[in-house]
Amino acid sequence: MQKFQLEVLFHIIGIGSASGLFFNGTSIYVVSDNSHLLYEYSLIDKKLEKINLAPQDYTGQLENVPKKEKRDFEAIAALGDDLYLFGSGSTEKRNTILHVDSQSKKVFPAIDATDLYLSMQEFGEINKENFNIEAAVNAGSTWYLFNRGNGPKKQNGVFTLEGDINETSFQFIFNEVKLPKINGFQSSFTDAVLIDDKLYFLAAAEKTTSTYKDGEVAGTLIGRMDTESMEVEWTQVISQKNKFEGITLYKKNDKSLEFLLSEDTDSDATASDIYKLTLEE
After folding, report:
1. Beta carbons of 248 and 21 less than 8 angstroms apart
2. What is the spatial distance between Cα 151 and Cα 88, in angstroms, rounded to a whole number?
3. Tens-digit pLDDT string for the chain (281 aa)
């Protein structure tokens, strides 16, 4: 059993349904699965900036986007100062990858991931009802994309991609991953972060078998995988009531690791708690 401490660190007004986050040392970048905005919360001046991600011809609402219209950004990964936001791929409207320069705030033209996602589904033998990208991790030219097994077949797994993200040109492999149940319900990936050669991941359990509809929360666990073997080394339940969907490294010490976690409450509330999770090594 892993020793851990979990506490609320920040309460940010203006962000709802936080589904992924990245900490760069001075700011927390947050993506929301029902928003067409990228949020930047500065730890220096405690101010929240909103970066518009919508296409130029978009005339709809930017927050609390209707479920049928949202692009469902569930994951964020950094390559230097460049941030990449990944749509879940769970419907045809959700096959977009966005590239944002975190320094200039420039939003580059959207990357159409339709063919990439279809190739991943075919290679991993995952049909569209079970395909749901919820986590993205970058390691140079290597990308790890995590499929959340919250569909009927519970297909948790990790795609390891080698290539150019801007061209969506990759060679890839797929490793199916078995995860434990929480309170009798199957857990499934929600986010991950790379530290040295280990992938630390979150997995939540819900009382549903749909990648589209939300269910009652059964809890969240953290776990660790080795990037060479892609085997799960350990898991630890950290909550039986929260659905944590974002994780990023906050501080690394000799005897502990500190992470920031974001919670998706599956509501229209426009406030988010950012938690600090401390693991003793």
Report:
1. yes
2. 13
3. 789 999 999 999 999 889 999 999 999 999 998 899 999 999 999 999 999 999 888 888 999 998 888 899 999 999 999 999 999 999 999 999 999 999 999 999 999 999 999 999 999 999 999 999 999 999 999 999 999 999 999 999 999 999 999 999 999 999 999 999 999 999 999 999 999 999 999 999 987 655 555 668 999 999 999 999 999 999 999 999 999 999 999 999 999 999 999 998 766 778 889 999 999 97
Q: How far apart are CA 257 and CA 255, in angstroms?
A: 7
Residue type, 193: V
| Angstrom distance (rounded) from CA 256 to CA 258 | 7
SS3 category, 107? strand
Structure tokens at 96: 């977009």
Q: Could you write out the DSSP letters of every residue in 117-167?
A: HHHHHHHHT--TTT--EEEEEEETTEEEEEEP--STT---EEEEEEEEGGG
**3-class secondary-structure state, position 219:** strand
Structure tokens at 54: 């919508």
pTM of the entire predicted model: 0.94
